[in-house]
Amino acid sequence: MIIMGFLETYEAVKKDSSKGVKNFNVIVESQPDGSFIAKMGQDFQAIYDAPPGLGGKDLGPSPLLGILAAVGSCIGAVTKFWSQIMDVPIDHIKIFSRGHINLAGIFGTDDANYEGMYDKLEPIVEIRSSAPKEKIDEMMEQVWKHCPVINNLNRDSGLTWRIKVK
Q1: I want to staple 97 with a disulfide (CB 3.0 to 4.6 A). Which of 34, 55, 72, 83 is the partner?
Q2: What is the rounded distance in angstroms from the CA atom of residue 67 to the CA atom of residue 21?
Q3: pLDDT per residue over 60-98, tens digit each?
Q4: Nearest to 54 by CA among 103, 99, 97
Q5: What is the DSSP string of 4-45?
Q6: Which residues contact 130 (CB under 8 A, 6 or more apart)?
């Protein structure tokens, strides 16, 4: 199996966009303790649960925290991509991924004011770099424009669902 570096992958996809088409699958399964295990790829898994006040045992982060982690991690990964593409040196990056929810919407007691899980997402990105601020701002414009998690949260991702009863 040949493993390409980022710039090789970037150049291959730039030359032929079909080389960038991928499917991702995650299986989430309930556990006897009430938590859920998310199996991601062949080698990764994560435990998700809810705090006791929301019916869980706090055995892992809630799915809501998982969304915030996905937002922050995606911003970090895409910033790394664009720093290489635009030759912007990054010494350190830290993302504070914050969100605000209304439990009344999740519980179905106030559907009139419920437009989604989070009614406000406010990631804050701290970057330490020797590049001028203008170059970092230019790079971050590309990050906001191309981060797939942010794009999926900001527009219709074509989400559909099915139920299989066994």
Answers
A1: 72
A2: 23
A3: 999 989 999 999 999 999 999 999 999 999 999 999 998
A4: 103
A5: --HHHHHHHHHH-GGGG-----EEEEE-TTS-EEEEETTTEE
A6: 89, 91
